[in-house]
Give the backbone structure.
Amino acid sequence: MINVGVIGLGHMGLLHLRNTRFIDGIKIVAAADKSKKGLVEAKSLGIKNLYNDYKELLKLNELDAVIISLPNFLHEESITFAAEKGLHIFIEKPLARTVSECKKIQQVTQRSNVNLAIGHNYRFFPHVQKLRDQFENGILGDIEIANFEHFVNGPFAHPLEPIPIHDWWLNPQLSGGGALLDQGYHLIDLFRWFFSDSEVLYSNLGYRYHLPIEDSAIATLKSRHVVTKGIISVGWFQKMLFPHFNFRLNLQGTTRYMSTDHFIPQNLYSYAAKEVLKNVFRRIAGRKIEPLSYTYYYNSYFKELHYFFEGIKNDIIIPPLATVVDGLKSIQIIEECYKNTSKINRKT
């Protein structure tokens, strides 16, 4: 049995807590959050050891691993404390705010000999994996240009579902950045996952809402190992509600064009109904359900945790989980984008 503590009980922390209950051989033994609301929710899910301070949680001797879902500015600190306790770590993206913080995390996890995986759940989207399989099989030829795009509300709630924004989101010193760090981080990671290490050719940030952080970004990347150039486009300006999800990867190859849109279910509502029925039959058969499979996208959060815990059992990070190196290299690209944009702004 692997004993796990959950640190941070916001939306993502509670989602991970619920998903973990469906993984064999895993037991959530403790949870921590400053919010009374989060602790009450954890208690309702059967968690007995509850803490206002995550450092108190880390004193538990029976812990084997932690899931961390804290604000960006607490990532380096919380990872360091957990690693020094010898605990395996699953951390929500981004790994940290800066390259400097990422390198410190890399050093402490190596020194403590613990596994650390980052929540890059987009690697587990079914249509992303199918597109990558087609690419890896050479069906598309050489990929000359890749367009990766993702437009959402960001931290801004839809008017139909109003939720306050935490102050740290809009503070560049605490968050580390805006849409590029939040959504662009996913796309940059996917570009690296497809085409290996990359460099920045161009970047530009948008400030539609006149905030101290960017609410849109465009970056042009080039792979250092193949001919591929990529355009990363992200934004927080689009108001839409789930299940609508404006995300796609488009690959322009020398023999064919292919997109994640080619692999997504034509009707997400019909897909959801079928998945619900599958889970009903799993329950009848006495098997564990597949959490959130009906949402198509959200099941990726369950899959990444399942891979993480399988890796702990085997003392490895199992692909396609993202490692410390993956997180570090994505932040290196983002920092370069911020620097390039600053240079362009100074010239204009």
